[in-house]
Each structure stands twice: as structure tokens, then as C-alpha cells.
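pinned: reference chain
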Amino acid sequence: MSFVASKKMTTFDWVNYTLLAITSFVCVFPFIYVFSVSFTDPDVYVPLKFYLFPDQWSLAAYKYLLSTNSFLNSLSNTIFITVIGTALSIVCSFTLAYTLTKKAMPGRNFMLSAVVFTLVFNAGIVPGYILVKELGLINSLWSLIWPSLTSAWSLIVIKSFFESLPAELEDSARIDGCTDIGVFLRIVIPLSMPAIAAFTLFFAVSYWNTYFNALIYLSDSKKWTLQVLIKTLVIDSDSNGVGQAGAGGDSRAVPQETIRMASIMLAMAPILLVYPFLQKHFAKGVMLGSVKG
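pinned: its C-alpha cells
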């Protein structure tokens, strides 16, 4: 009887679930609209009409986008900085964070203080631009990778995760003859796979969504990232961003609105497809780094 009574819905429960359902619909509705418009046949598309489902399905907008030089260039640029940037960020973040856990390392306190200092104070946009310019990285895809290799927040969280690992494992490995690099590669890294998966997702999403730095450092349209191209398509409605950057097809046969929505879907698709496979490791990695012991 007590079990049945505990399952009885109260007025608060009904109100709570109703508000959650409304909030969820408000959040999901834009994605439904973007998805529906992107797959709507150009022959039956009506501007300003609400589409819950396409009246007639078509891949015309996607075929057009994937036939344009500008979209393929921006896609390849984004894939490059995402893959290379994520790999370098993982290596840089985990090696530096592991080093900061060693109290016997000379200069550790100074390095740790420098990391925390950048967490509080930021040089700003202009000094950052001057630094990138002096390094000769303007109009280079590397300008989107080197300045963003790691962050103070990432280092502190990863350092906390390393400190939660049992120190006895490293001591036993050294007794068996492992060097410091061997301990890191054979003991620490295998135990850090959940954290690596979590930060791989963090870094990959950050690089994939690179927009502001690309807008500042890249003036050559052939080196635009996907987000900059989509901004040109969606916001600069008075111009055809794909066409201006070198289209490979005729956009007059496809409504501009369906092209915009298709570009948004293509930009979201990789992250939406990868996230479910990393979700388990993502949650586990974050929790492991949150406590010690």
C-alpha cells in the first residue's frame, strides 16, 4: 500500500511535468523546423509557412550545398582544425596537467600560479591579435589551433582527476622498472580513458564551433570555417554566401531558406552523431574528476 501511495501523482508533480514538457518543446521546436525546411522539396516550399513535417521530402538543398566549392572548403577546414586541434589539445592538456601534479618538479608552483592567473585575468582581443600576427599566423588555419590548445579550467580539472588516482599504482610501476614516461603511458593514460573521452568531446565541440577567432584571424574566404560560412548564409540575408565564395551549382533552383537550414543541419550533424557514443564516458569522466579519493 505504501508503494502505491508513493507513486500517486500530486498537483506539484503535474505542474512540474507540464512545465518541463513545455520547456522541452520550446527547446526542440527550432530543431524540428530547421530539419523540416531543409528536407522540403523546392517545388512545394512556401516561405514563412510552418513545417512540422515536409510536405514533400527532397535532398535538393543538401545536394546543392555538397556540390559547392565554398561549402566543401569550409567543411574540410573545419574537419582539419577539429581533428588536429583536438589531438594536440589532448596531448598538451594531459601531459601538462600530469606534470603539475608532481610536487618535486622544479618550478611547479610558478607554473601552477601562472595557470590560475590566466583563469582570472585575460589579455584581451587586441593583444591576442597582435601576438597571432607577430607569429605569422594571420590567414592560417593554425591561428585557430595554437592559441586554443588548452585552458586553465581544463588543466585544473584534469590535474584534479590525476590526483584522485591511487599513488600506489605509480610507485609499484616504478619498483617494476618503469620510467616516468612509462608510468604515464602504461599506467596513468589507461586509467584516464573516461577523462580523455570527456575532454575529447569538449575540445572537438569547441574546435568544430570555432567562429569568433576565425572571423578575426581569417580574411580569405577559402579558409573560412563552417560556422563563418553559415553566418554569411543565415545572417547576411542580402547576399548569397555560398555563391560569393565560389559555388559549384545554380542556387536559383533551390530556395535560399532551404539552403540555410540544410547548412545548419550539416553543421550540427557530426556532433549529434558522435555525442551518444561518448555520453557514457563523458559523464563518468566528469564525475571522476570532481572528487578525490
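why pinned: The longest helix spans residues 256-288. Residues 59-293 form a domain with the MetI-like fold fold (CATH 1.10.3720.10).
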